[in-house]
Amino acid sequence: MNSIADQSRRFPHWRQDLTASLVVFLVALPLCVGVAIASGVPAELGLVTGIVGGLVTGFLPGSSLQVSGPAAGLTVLVFGAVDQYGLPALGVIVLAAGVVQLVMGALRLGRWFRAISLSVVEGMLAGIGLVLIAGQLYSAAGLQAPASGIDKLTGLPGAAADALGSTGALTSLALGAGTVAVMVLWKRLPRRAQTVPGALAAVGLATAVTAAFGLSVATVRVSGLLDVIQPPGADAFGELVNVGLLGTIAAFTLIASAESLFSAAAVDRLHNGPRTEYDKELMAQGAGNTVCGVLGALPMTAVIVRSSANVAAGARTRASRVLHGVWLLLFAALLPSVLGLIPLPALAGILVHAGWKLIPFRSIVPLWRDHRGEALILVVTAVSIVAVNMFEGVLIGLALSVVKTAWDASHLGLEIVDKGAGPVQAHLTGNATFLRLPKILEGLEALPRDRPVELDLSGLHHLDHACRTALENWAERHSTTGSDPVKVTKPQKAGV
C-alpha cells in the first residue's frame, strides 16, 4: 500500500496519462500505416516514425501534450522524393532536415515560424489535401495514380470510367467509401461509443467485411520491423551534391517545422497546462527527425489529430505521448502480421478523410469577405502546389505574402484641397515608399501649374529616400512654371 501511495505522489497523473496514451495509440496506429502506404514506403516505416515520435520526441521538452509522428501533410512531398531519388535517399533527406531543425532551435529561430502568414500555411495544407485526396481515390479503386498533382486531378474522369468497367475496382471503391462513411458518422454516435477512435473502428470494420465476404482487394504488405530499417549508406549521402535534393531538404524542414509549431499553438488553446517553448519544441522535432533519418524512416511532425485526442482523453503530462510510443513498439514487435489483414482501400478512405480536413472550407468565404488579399494568397498557394510542386508552391505563397505585407506597409493617403482661390493644398499621410511613388507623382503632376501649392508632409510616418528625392525634384520643377515656389511642410517625426 505504501509503494502505491509513493507512486501516486511521484506520478500524480499516471492514471489519466495511461488512459490517454492508449487512446492516442489507437488513433495513431491506422494513421501511421496509412501515411506510410500513401508515401510509397513500407507500412512498418510509418510505425517506426510513430515510435520515435513517442520515445524520442515525447521525452524532450517543448510542448508537453502534443504528439508527433508521420503526418498526412508530408505524404505528397515524401512520395515525390522517394519516386525521384529512391528510398535510400529518404533517410538522408530526413536526417539533414532534422539537423537543420536542431540548428534553428539552438539559434532560437523557432519563434519566427509564428510569423509565417497563416494564409500560406492554410494554402499549403489545402494544396496537400487536394493532391492527397486525388491520389488516394486512385488507390481506393486499386489503380495506379499519376505522378504529378495536376495529372492526378485531370486523370480522375478517365480513372472513373475505368473503374466503372471493373467489378474489382467498384468493390474496392465501395470499401473505401464505406470507410469514409463510418468515420463521418462515428462522431454522431453516443460519447461512450466514441471511446474507440473512428479511424480504428473504420479500419476494423473494413477488415472484418473483407474477411467475412472474401473480397478480392489489395491488403497491406508486411515484412519484419527490423527488415525495413535501413540506415542510409555512403551512396545515399553522395546525393547531397544534388541541388534538387537540397531543395527537397529545405522543403521538408520548412513544412515540417511550420506544421509542428502551428500545431503547438493550436494545442495550447485546448488546455490550461504549460505553454509551448517554441525553440525547444523545434529542437525536439529535430532530434526526432534525426533519429528517423538514421533509421531510414518517414519524417515526423507534430500532428493535431493525435494531439487533440491526447488532450481530450485527459492527458496531463508528456508521459502519455511516451507511452503511446511504447504501445506502438509492442504492437510492431508482437503483432506485425495483423497489418497484413488491413485492406488498402480502407487506408485510402482514411487518408481521403484526412485530406478533406486539411482544406479550410469554412474559413475561405469569411476570409474572402474580410481580407481578400489573404484569401488570394491561400488560393494561389494551394493551386501552385497542385500545378507545380510542394516546394515551389510554398515559395510562391511566401513571396506573395511578403509582397502583400510590403504593399500594406506602404499605405498612403493623398488628399487635395482646392478652395478655388489661394494655394492648392496637398496632404500626404501614411507611409511614402517607392511602391507608392507612381500614385504620389500622378496626383501631384495633375495639380494646376499656374497656382501656388502647399505640400504638407507632416502626416507621414515614413518617407523613404526614393520618395524624398522625387518630391524634391517635383517641387523644383513646379516652382519654375512661373507660380510661387512650392511650400513644403516637412514630416514632424525626426528621421522621416
State the gist of this model:
The protein has 496 residues and is of the alpha/beta class.
Strand order of the largest sheet: 3-4-5-6
Tally of individual domains: 2
**How does the overall form come out from the CA principal axes?**
elongated
Helix- and strand-based class?
Answer: alpha/beta
Helix content: 55-70%
Mean pLDDT: 85
Q: How many H/I helical runs?
A: 22
* Alpha-carbon distance between the two ends: 74 Å
Portion in strands: 5-15%
Low-pLDDT stretches: none
Number of strands: 6
Q: What's the quaternary structure here?
A: single chain
**Major β-sheet, in short?**
4 strands, mixed
The ordered string of helix (H) and strand (E) elements is HHHEHHHHHHHHHHHEHHHHHHEEHEHE
Radius of gyration: 29 Å
Membrane topology: Multi-pass membrane protein
Keywords: Membrane, Transmembrane, Transmembrane helix
Protein name: SulP family inorganic anion transporter
Pfam families: Sulfate_transp
Give the helix/strand layout:
Blueprint: H1 2-10, H2 14-38, H3 43-55, E1 68-69, H4 75-85, H5 87-106, H6 118-140, H7 149-154, H8 156-164, H9 167-186, H10 198-213, H11 225-228, H12 234-238, H13 243-268, H14 278-295, E2 301-302, H15 304-312, H16 319-334, H17 344-358, H18 361-370, H19 372-387, H20 390-409, E3 412-417, E4 424-432, H21 437-445, E5 453-463, H22 465-478, E6 487-489
Parallel strand pairs: 4-5, 5-6
Antiparallel strand pairs: 1-2, 3-4
Helix pairs in contact: 2-3, 2-10, 2-15, 2-16, 2-17, 3-14, 3-16, 4-5, 5-13, 5-14, 6-17, 6-19, 6-20, 9-10, 9-17, 13-14, 13-15, 18-19, 19-20, 21-22
